[in-house]
Design brief:
- The protein is of the alpha/beta class and about 375 residues long.
- The protein has two domains: about 20-190, BsuBI/PstI restriction endonuclease, N-terminal domain (Arc Repressor Mutant, subunit A, Orthogonal Bundle); about 205-365, Trna Endonuclease, Chain: A, domain 1 (3-Layer(aba) Sandwich).
- It has 14 helices and twelve strands.
- A hairpin with a 7-residue loop joins strand 4 (about 210) and strand 5 (about 220).
- Helix 1 (about 20-30) packs across helix 2 and helix 5 (about 85-100) packs antiparallel against helix 6.
- It is elongated and about 85 Å long.
- The N and C termini lie far apart (about 75 Å).
Length: about 375
């Protein structure tokens, strides 16, 4: 089979294995912040395949000068094809894949091996409608716009600034820095925040410092971990935006460790903080509301959402402290909507409670009865 003819081109980029591509995708798009379709094995094969055939372009390149790919370019990529990684072999495979399935089979026969594609053709919708769509929205891939959406012709190409992150010669430390710079330049603010928080959670090894609002600069040191980071966000960001005058009364940690916020206010209110009691992760008061509203916050890294049973237990505890039920509000704080804890526990939230996510700090979910009825509590 003769090599593909067309515009003269420089030496092809160095190939990258699917395994290494997946590892780097998870650095660029941390799983705690981005859907798995960004960095799945199928997504990794897409990076490998598109770089293999040099389907990489600049956003301003003329469409006729670009080598385009289609989903089957990825699905038909085989282990055998990846071993034929000279520039000439890669161009020959590109030409075969650009034609049809029969030509790819024939090429493998010329190599003396059966054709064993990495994925079945029914995976094309997942690749096109999920991975490619998300990548395109995040400025990682370009779609050829001069073709109708129903066209079967190749129309996808990695953007060069994204492909640069998969240079095999790029050391790990440099790659992580390059990934950070890429996110800062190409992702919108919310996506950057999610990535930042996910990476921060993975690298946090020291105590988490929480700044208490309306306390004259007072802080509390919490043990390292996701729960502490969630608590930090709920206190420093959510409460300041949501409450009129937020005051931290107490923060509890595993191991019967309790941090008192405003001790004088606790004494004035007659609230006793006993580690042996059924304490919430955070107890706050909005002293700017009339009457004062108490907020019970549970931080969920793995479990511990404000379920119906938990809400009842906390209301009983509040009643023992002289806090009326109608003065209590409940918030379940998660790390992210993408996090496993949220996917597992959102369905268990009690009625008349709220949910908040650290990586989307300016949003809040409310769960309550639209039609008045018997209250679950």
């Amino acid at each position: 089979m003769p090599p593909l003819t067309g515009p003269r081109e420089p030496e092809l980029r160095k190939p990258i294995s699917p395994e290494e591509a997946e590892r780097r995708l998870r650095i660029i798009f941390p799983r705690a912040a981005f859907d798995a379709v960004f960095s799945s094995p199928l997504a990794a094969m897409a990076v490998t395949a598109l770089i293999h055939i040099d389907a990489v372009c600049n956003v301003d390149d003329d469409v006729q000068s670009v080598h385009w790919a289609r989903p089957t370019t990825v699905l038909w990529m085989s282990e055998e094809a990846l071993t034929h990684n000279s520039d000439e072999d890669r161009k020959i495979w590109r030409e075969a894949a650009a034609k049809n399935h029969k030509h790819v089979v024939t090429l493998h026969e010329s190599w003396g091996v059966p054709f064993q594609p990495s994925y079945r053709d029914n995976s094309r919708e997942t690749l096109r409608d999920e991975t490619f769509r998300e990548w395109r929205e995040h400025d990682a891939i370009r779609r050829r716009l001069d073709l109708p959406t129903s066209s079967s012709r190749p129309c996808w190409s990695l953007l060069d600034h994204f492909a640069d992150l998969f240079d095999p010669d790029l050391p790990d430390e440099d790659m992580e820095q390059a990934a950070q710079k890429w996110r800062d330049k190409h992702l919108e603010k919310g996506a950057r925040l999610k990535a930042h928080l996910a990476i921060k959670a993975e690298t946090t090894k020291h105590a988490v410092t929480v700044n208490l609002p309306n306390s004259g600069g007072a802080t509390r040191e919490l043990a390292a971990g996701i729960s502490s980071l969630i608590i930090k966000g709920a206190i420093e960001t959510w409460s300041v935006a949501r409450l009129q005058t937020p005051v931290v009364l107490a923060i509890s940690e595993p191991g019967d460790k309790v941090h008192v916020g405003d001790e004088k206010l606790l004494q004035t209110l007659g609230i006793k903080i006993d580690a042996k009691n059924i304490l919430p992760d955070v107890l706050m008061a909005d002293v700017g509301s009339d009457p004062v509203q108490f907020w019970v916050i549970e931080a969920v890294a793995t479990d511990g959402a404000v379920t119906t049973a938990r809400r009842k237990a906390l209301l009983k505890w509040a009643d023992q402290q002289g806090i009326k039920a109608d003065r209590c509000s409940f918030l379940t704080a998660f790390w992210s909507r993408n996090d496993g804890a949220a996917r597992k526990r959102l369905k268990d939230l009690a009625s008349e409670t709220w949910a908040w996510f650290a990586d989307e700090p300016h949003h809040e979910l409310a769960w309550y009865q639209v039609v008045p009825g018997t209250d679950e509590a």
